[in-house]
Give the backbone structure.
Amino acid sequence: MTEPRVTLAAVAGAHGVAGEVRLKLFAEGLDSLKRHSDVQVGERVLTLTSIKPAAFGAIARFAGIADRSAAEALRGETLSVPRSALPPLEDGEYYHADLIGLPCVAASGPDLGTAAAVENFGAGDIVEIERPDGRRFMVPVAAAVTIEADRLVIDDAFVE
């Protein structure tokens, strides 16, 4: 089984003419990226040589990406690292990658399906649950989800 990867950012496009890229950050901040010298960018492993803050994310430079065309070719690619490369968590914290794939059950007992995605649109994390028939529904993590080691328990008030 392949180790899960955690996406830390996405390339939004080129910045300037010397190979820098604009990043949309999904992690807590620049320090989350700075602790990793090598990141997977799409299907390639690239070495992060510099990163600095920008108005809406960050500006980064990778070894081997030396001009605007090479930087622009990375547009839309995600930057990820192995789950094992991330720092340990405090009680009550979780990485989205740890929730995806977990079975979901209602507090009253019935199986609901599997956690298919975790989103955050600004008001907190939302888990998207895929039912066995393929239909999906979303529930707010803070208000409706109890995270256990091997499953997610969903408050009955949020089950459709």
Summary: The helical segments are 30-34, 68-72, 96-99, 141-144. The mean pLDDT is 91. Residues 102 and 149 are 9 Å apart (CA to CA).
